[in-house]
Amino acid sequence: MPGALRSDIGGEIYHALNRGNARNKVFFKPGDFEAFERVIKEGLEKYSVDLFAYQWMSNHWHMVLPPQTNQAMSGFLGWVTMTHTKRYHAHHKTAGYGPVYQGRYKSFPVQVPFFDLTPLLDLSTKVLQPLHFRERAK
Question: Other CB atoms closer than 10 Å to residue 30's CB: what's the count?
């Protein structure tokens, strides 16, 4: 049975996160973080989503992102999670050993203007100008 639809309204800002299965590590070395960032970049080229801030930790990640259109965030995060899982298993030779993530991502609408979030973010959080990896009409 499919999971319930998540709030995913274009123009709104969301805090999204996912954690390694059983809180296990997902990232073991700097190259793992770099590989995940490549997946994120590819996903941002495919889906109408911007990335305002992110934090990758060894066993989970957080992103602050606004979808530009309805349901774009769901497509983006579903694609990122599935693509990262496939590449993780291929790299670590763990295909068939179970899930990488504890389940679907979680997301929550941000209730305050984005500029008010910055004091709440950890110092290791990357706060960005919106990342636009796909070509924009000039």
Answer: 8
What does the alpha-carbon distance between residue 72 and residue 65 come to, in Å, rounded to a whole number?
A: 11
What pLDDT, on the 0 to 100 scale, is given for residue 105?
A: 93
Side chain identity at 24, as an amino acid letter?
A: N
Half-sphere exposure of 45 (CA within 13 A, CB side): 6
CA 3 to chain centre: 18
Q: Which CATH number is 14-127 given?
A: 3.30.70.1290
Amino acid found at 19: R
Residue 99 neighbours by CB under 8 Å, 6+ apart: 21, 85
CB atoms within 10 A of CB 6: 17
Nearest Cα neighbor of 50 from 80, 78, 14 is 14
With beta carbons less than 8 A apart as the criterion, state whether 46 and 76 touch: yes
* pLDDT score, position 19: 95
Cα separation, 132 vs 134, whole angstroms: 6
